[in-house]
Design goal:
Blueprint (H helix, E strand, L loop, with lengths): L16 H9 L4 H12 L3 E5 L2 H12 L5 E5 L5 H8 L3 E5 L10 H10 L3 E7 L8 H8 L4 E5 L7 E2 L2 E2 L6 E5 L12 E5 L2 H13 L2 E2 L4 H8 L1 H4 L2 H7 L19 E2 L2 H10 L2 H20 L5 E2 L13 E6 L2 H14 L26 H9 E5 L2 H10 L1 H8 L2
Parallel strand pairs: 2-3, 2-4, 4-5, 5-8, 10-11
Antiparallel strand pairs: 1-9, 6-7, 8-9, 12-13, 13-14
Helix pairs in contact: 1-11, 2-11, 3-4, 3-7, 5-6, 12-16
């Protein structure tokens, strides 16, 4: 199968060269930057770290005793169970709901009965699809720590509240596949003073300070060029380049974020409003074109009916239909993706996750296709009618 030389990335955000330079030149204290970001998000305590998985690791280590059971969804990023394992906790998988990509609440109730000694639950807002946090609280009760995983949802709100700020502790990620791309980084947040003190103690005693590197700087200043379709398409063909690969690897670095990264976040955090609005506009175009199709199911939030906006996920039950859609997209360079290749119980490198009954998560893994929503692709779509073509293919 031949592929287009020009290829759109599945996800892209703007990282302006001038803002990167300005952040590196700035002398503004990190505490001032974080105070302003916290006021925006509605959280009192913010802890910038080097990645989202590091944020999850720190939240677990600071809050729970070793070996504690932590419920995680059956279909999510492989870094979630990796962080749980690295923290010395026991991951417990609970099935996912294909209708909204969150927890299957019936299955979650059974999981809690089977594991009454559960200490925490990680709630993931896949592609920015808002999970019903009130329903999660009712299901788990007041004694279970709720970790609000908004790694894919920075800047998105539900009923006036930011995703990531509705648990006991929450976190965001700023890698290249996220709503705000800063060349990596993460942010751990909480309004719980006791947890904040525990996290602060851990950061002071165990976690080293990250330092800005020339490599990281070059990656950031070249990001806008790297996501251009021609450059991205050529780079994806180079030997050894592994774009969008999901790996289970508990051996990852955990550091506090460099102050330059904090200043860059401070410069750009409000720009995510425009980026997310643009993504949602494209997602609604897909929704209009595909919602009447017999061959697809569109996961949507049970809270407000919104589909995914970081990417637009659809579930294509027929394997031949799915293969045909992906083949056409690859040929045209549209950037459609299958996302995570398996449910978490099928990760070969993680035998401790095997044995869980995850029918919904396995269905998602074998049927999902994600469609790009970012500005570069949306502009191309408006010229060439990708949304309409996809709608006709799936009608």
């Amino acid at each position: 199968m031949s592929m287009a030389i020009r290829r759109y990335p599945p996800v892209a955000a703007e990282l302006p060269f001038g803002d990167v330079i300005a952040a590196w030149r700035s002398r503004q204290p990190a505490v001032e930057c974080l105070h302003e970001i916290g006021a925006y998000l509605g959280v009192r305590h913010l802890f910038p770290v080097n990645s989202g998985r590091a944020a999850l690791y720190i939240a677990l280590r600071a809050s729970l005793s070793p070996g504690s059971k932590v419920i995680i969804p059956g279909y999510t990023c492989f870094t979630v169970p990796a962080a749980v394992v690295r923290a010395g906790m026991t991951p417990v998988l609970s099935d996912s709901d294909p209708g909204n990509l969150g927890y299957d609440l019936s299955a979650l109730g059974k999981t809690l009965k089977q594991h009454p000694d559960t200490k925490a639950i990680v709630v993931c807002h896949m592609f920015g699809i808002a999970v019903d946090m009130a329903a999660i609280r009712r299901a788990v009760g007041s004694e279970v720590l709720i970790i609000d995983d908004a790694a894919q949802a920075f800047g998105l709100t539900i009923k006036g509240k930011f995703q990531g700020a509705d648990g006991h502790v929450g976190f965001y990620s700023f890698g290249r596949g996220k709503t705000l791309a800063l060349g990596g980084g993460g942010l751990l947040v909480t309004n719980n003073d006791f947890l904040a003190e525990r996290i602060s103690d851990m950061l002071r005693g165990e976690i080293e300070q990250g330092k800005a590197t020339l490599r990281g700087f070059l990656e950031m200043v070249s990001y806008d060029l790297a996501v251009r379709p021609l450059v991205f398409g050529l780079a994806s063909r180079l030997p050894g380049i592994r774009l969008g690969i999901s790996e289970f690897n508990p051996d990852f670095a955990v550091r506090k974020a460099p102050v330059e990264k904090v200043r860059l976040l401070h410069r750009l955090y409000r720009t995510v409003e425009t980026l997310n609005a643009q993504r949602l506009e494209q997602a609604m175009r897909y929704l209009s074109a595909l919602s009447g199709g017999r061959r697809v199911t569109i996961p949507r939030s049970s809270m407000d009916g919104r589909p995914g906006s970081l990417r637009f996920p659809i579930l294509v039950a027929d394997a031949d239909d799915r293969a045909r859609l992906l083949k056409r997209a690859a040929k045209m360079g549209w950037g459609f993706s299958t996302m995570y290749p398996t449910a978490l119980n099928r990760i070969e490198q993680a035998p401790q996750l095997a044995g869980f009954d995850l029918k919904g998560a396995e269905y998602i893994a074998r049927t999902i296709v994600t469609l790009p929503t970012h500005r570069l692709f949306a502009a191309y779509d408006k010229r060439h009618g990708v949304t309409e073509t996809t709608g006709r293919m799936m009608a």
